[in-house]
Amino acid sequence: MLRTLTHRRFVCSLFFPFSSSSDQNFGEKWSKIWKEKIMVNLNNHLYDEKRHLSKEAQSVVNATTAGFVTGFILGGIAKAKDVPETYKAENQATVYQHKFDAYREIQYKVTLSLIKGGLSFALKLGTFCFLFSSISAIFYIYKGKFDVISSTCSGAITGCLYKINMGLKGAFAGTLLGSILGTIYGISTALILFITGVEMDELYETGKLFPSTRREKIREQTRKLMADEKSELQMLYEQKYASVNTIKNEEKQ
After folding, report:
1. Does pTM surpass 0.85?
2. What share of the chain is helix, strand, coil (3-state, %, to 5)?
3. Count of H helices and E strands in the chain?
4. CA triple 16-17-23, angle to 5 deg
5. Which of 60, 132, 13, 22 minimizes the C-alpha distance to 5?
6. What is the pLDDT of residue 2?
7. Angle 246-249-250 (CA atoms, 0-180°, nearest 5)?
């Protein structure tokens, strides 16, 4: 009986190596690793000692914002530039009570096309910039330096993720195109850094300088407003205190 039970346990452990106890231990170990190592390292690289965005995270925000704004402008202009001619060609037989009605309709169509085309292309370009800058920042944090190979790998991964919804062929084409664009970006950036004698870390610090300056200005304005409010409140308090003293003196007399 004991031998049969032992064989059964051996067979179960052979075919089902992850039992309930092992699953529980694995889950506890994974949660411990996630909390103590992954989340701590992630917080250290996302935030600085003042709990502001780190220079790498700020570079991702800057690149994504620049891509979104550029995509909105380019997409909106490309979508809206042919709207007036198309509208005139489609509404040649339309009779308006006044010419300003036609101008108003054309302006509405242009604005609508500008918003639609701008948002569509802005989301695409912003997503691409976010993926590329995020992966590039991860490579920079891991290696501690900037090189062309990291840019090529970042472009390849970004292109693959960007076109993975189009199947295997689309992912392969996106990987190839992304690697080419990443290589071009890496070579041009390396040349600029070599000519100017600037390190990539200094560029990250420069990208973080604008938000830091903006925060300092906001704090200064807040201090000034608080000081003005404090002075006004102090004046009101002094006036009230003087009026109360005057009333008390009159009552005593």
Report:
1. no
2. 85, 0, 10
3. 9, 0
4. 105
5. 13
6. 39
7. 85
